């Protein structure tokens, strides 16, 4: 007989994180990680950290890091929320801000975690197909909803929209909270953070995992009105008061303060992305105009699934999604120029 | 007119974390932090960490840390769950394991976060008064319930129970999941982790924040049957795949492997606790027999609230709870012998 206690276990389909090979000597272009190390200032902050202080709890408010992010975006500390990676920030935001009976709205092609959080928190949702050009149609989001979440640039399409587009979205939704997920926004995108001063129902999220090369430290943030941030804080403090560890506070702050390194790194990735795009196009690929640190590409006469599998045998890891509409596309993270050389060489071999 | 989007915000009373003074030259005995630094091996693991690797996501499974904890408790990796501090572990466990219509059961005097998680996740609960001696009565937990959670030792009472007591609790509850929260168990308590091999519905949680002096790094864990752990993993992976950062994996593992330092530190704290207890008793206090890194004390003829406030003016911070039954008690973290000297000196001044 089944034991009764098993009835009270949460029935949930385990989410399987993307493949993360730990092999050596691979070209790893499948997780949108930054190919460059974090700012030397962040590295030095860790080196200089007095580890005996780890016996103490972190600053629960992570004030020094919040203040640095607030200064960077030209807002106040009360407009900044922090989490253990932007997944944590978005998960708290879904819980805290999407409590309507109406479905929340997001594109059909988008970050795969949105439906997972909806299932976890029992949030109804409705997806709106992106166009044939993979662009999001702002007009779709005029339909009454319980909230809107849009990545800008979108993933895995890499397409970004301007602040005008976001402002239109917010104006169409005076009765909902609109979340703009800017995980990939630092690679030539336009941030909507300044709009949060004008619209109290707009939340903009970001991460240190991509543009700041600190995926290993887990720092995500949100910018919004003091009212929205207070609700996020209340939920977070009802869950776990100390989400950001002491080393992350120091290293994150040092990263933000070193704007020169940040811009130089982003610009290097943008330059390599443009080169990668041209070389792929020269080989007959169609590449969407990326504003992210990855490109989304297809080929008129070859199977992208086969290319993905071929490259894997050559220890070059990219991402393939067996999903409707995009099952002949690949997502390729922008690596160093050397990694791009290897990638292009192996793709040429495949195309032969 | 109130804007409609505000209706969809989560209405939750903000939980206010305990007072954490950042002043210098204070004697901080109010947060149950360890007065000694983490293991030199953990410090060295941070120093030796190649910070350029922070550009990569952490191992989502945190395998090296799980394996070290599994070895320490004599279980398998599949019996270990990790979280961002034991608050994260317990929050996931409440969500994942307490999905009954019956109330979960816990003592009236206990960790203040239990009702907060119940409110957050909509879990009904019922509290059972501890006895006049502040002991938990196992028989109370024979009443049908949706789950049981008990800290062992309990906080803020400091009283611990043996494995026999826990086994009785589990035997009384074949239809519920029983969680034993061992945050303070390493200071002379008996761990119930081995019982998880016998009872699939028992979960034992622990933390690196107290006995391992790593509160600043945020590492908590749970030990249980593969079936319980799989449910925790499914919920965790539906929320945030990468909760443990790369530095915590390395430093945590190094801490577990340095058992000699761990035992020496715990033994020092136990010795100071016994000395503190004797000195307080000599001053007319009643001190409960602590198995934790804090003591819970009262005085027959003096106001503990006044003592708490007096000590604060002397920059000695202890904890006072204005709660029924314990409003003439104080909770004092066991510090170094030097901190204990200052504490006792100031208490003598107060008693004059």
How would you characterize this protein structure?
Two copies of one chain form a homodimer. In chain A, helix 3 packs across helix 6. The first copy, chain A, contains ten helices and 13 strands. In chain A, the strands form four sheets. In chain A, strands 2-8-7-6-5 form a five-stranded mixed β-sheet. The longest helix of chain A has 24 residues. In chain A, strand 9 and strand 10 form a beta hairpin. Chain A has 352 residues and is an alpha/beta fold. At the A-B interface, helix 1, helix 3, helix 4, helix 6 and helix 7 of A face helix 1, helix 3, helix 4, helix 6 and helix 7 of B.
Layout of secondary structure:
Two copies of one chain form a homodimer.
Chain A: E1 27-28, H1 40-48, H2 63-73, E2 80-83, H3 86-97, E3 104-107, H4 113-121, E4 125-128, E5 148-151, H5 163-172, E6 178-181, E7 202-207, E8 220-224, H6 226-237, H7 246-257, H8 259-282, E9 285-287, E10 294-299, H9 304-313, E11 316-317, E12 319-320, E13 329-333, H10 337-351
Helix pairs in contact in A: 1-7, 2-7, 3-4, 3-6
Query: Which stretches of chain A of 5+ consecutive residues score pLDDT under 50?
Result: none
Oligomeric nature of the chains: homodimer
Strand/helix succession of chain A: EHHEHEHEEHEEEHHHEEHEEEH
Largest interface: A-B, 89 and 89 residues
The DSSP helix count of chain A reads 10
